[in-house]
Amino acid sequence: MDEPAIVTVQQHILKEQHQHSPTASGSFSWLLSGITLATKMTEARVRRAGLLDVIGAVGNTNTHGEQQQKLDVFADRALAHCLCLRENVAIIASEECEDAILFDGRAGSGKYIVVFDPLDGSSNIDVNVSVGTIFSILEMPEDARFSEDPTEAVLQPGTRQLAAGYVVYGSSTIMVYTTGHGVHGFTLDPSIGAYVLSHENIRMPESGNYYSSNDAYWETFPEPYRDYLTFLRKGGMGRRYALRYIGSLVADFHRTLLRGGVFLYPPTDANPQGKLRLLYEANPVAFIAEQAGGVATDGRQRVLDVTPTDIHQRTPLIVGGRSELAEFQRFVPPGERESNASRELLDVGA
Ligand code: AHM
Ligand code: MG
Prior knowledge:
Elements: H1 9-20, H2 27-47, E1 57-61, E2 67-69, H3 70-84, E3 89-94, E4 101-102, E5 112-120, E6 131-139, H4 151-154, E7 163-169, E8 173-178, E9 183-189, E10 194-199, E11 210-212, H5 223-233, E12 242-243, H6 249-259, E13 262-265, E14 276-277, H7 278-291, E15 295-297, E16 314-315, E17 317-320, H8 322-331, H9 336-346
Parallel strand pairs: 3-5, 11-12, 11-13
Antiparallel strand pairs: 1-2, 3-4, 5-6, 6-7, 7-8, 8-9, 9-10, 13-17, 14-16, 15-17
Bound molecules: 2,5-anhydro-1,6-di-O-phosphono-D-mannitol (AHM) and magnesium ion.
């Protein structure tokens, strides 16, 4: 019997480029292949986590004061290595490293900036819970070509992302990405070592059955957030919600993308600015959510409109289906300046 036809992530990106930018040189797909290679290296380690000496902490803390896990370090190095080999990448910035890195001699020639969370949810590794890699690709700004300081170049709002994606190392390994033309998912086929198209043109359901937030922090959420969650719990949306919270953003977001509902990481006493990082986590997730028909806000404005001032800036994140987010904005109204844009985004009484 003939093998069924498959579409790999590489073929898919080339086809997309051909469709949407026929003059493109193929350099973007070369860059993306660096990311897929690094994630395959990480996935091989994750899959053998109990067998290799890769579980546990390395004994250092990262730039956020969190314990670095051995796999955090491995995943970070794998991405840095694979992206350094892509000569079109000028700058990388990682959640694990204090400063952005400008690759030698690339300020004038490199076209792209890649920012990433190499291993999201890494506190879950030791107990076999899903973890992932999140990435976002930006264009190298013209004026940064003459600067030796890469930080400024990285501080771009999420609307400027050329592409974003993530990989979940879960019950299977799946890569989801967007270049602004819909959201597509590719499952890693271990028998051929390739990401194969499995979820074409993903749409986030308008509404779902799950809400997702760390309930242990309930007392420290701002009151309007608690009121909103109480409203969901009491069936205010006309259905009974169930709680799902994995504690790995990639996994919680992936479920929200496919099944709908809402994920919230509000401001808390411990993290008044929110815990998640704008550049490495919230922006890529927000870009994917919007491309799939969902909505992402920081409680005041559209996540993608925030201009970062620090590469490790944290943000609250509320992301999910249009119905849940429209209701959220009733409880937590956006800032005055933002309300028109939000209404437009949500299509509610604009
Ligand atoms: P990290 O593992 O990259 O440091 O990411 C932070 C993680 C997110 O994946 C997840 O959503 C969140 O922290 C969970 O935090 P908490 O344990 O406070 O609920
Ligand atoms: Mg993370």
